[in-house]
Design a protein that fits this description.
3 helices, globular, alpha+beta, about 110 residues
């Protein structure tokens, strides 16, 4: 399991600087919701560098090429109660608020 997580992180990290716009802090995941291909992740302490309407959750866009890998890392982080550090790239639609931070990259601690 640990080797798989390291592999997933290795695939994500090289692309982090090219996508990330603003730091979102280090958070612990409380809930993950999937709706229509988009992923909504709830956590406390989410930073809001782009001034999105919600800071209770962030989203992974359905068209994000790293969406499946990010989702895998987030599920593992939730199950293990492991903090993740987030970087955001703007705001996106949210069914619970006008907008929520859009994830660009993440790191599992």
């Amino acid at each position: 399991m640990r080797k798989l997580l390291c592999l997933m992180l290795a695939l994500l990290l090289p692309s982090a600087p090219s996508h990330a716009a603003g730091g979102g802090g280090t958070v612990t995941i409380s809930r993950i919701t999937l709706i229509g291909g988009s992923v909504y992740v709830f956590a406390s302490g989410i930073g809001n560098p782009d001034g999105c309407a919600s800071v209770a959750h962030f989203t992974i866009a359905a068209e994000n090429p790293g969406r499946d890998q990010m989702l895998s890392v987030l599920i593992a982080a939730k199950l293990n109660r492991t903090p993740v550090t987030l970087w955001f790239d703007g705001c996106a639609y949210s069914p619970w608020a006008t907008s929520a931070p859009l994830i660009g990259a993440l790191t599992m601690e």
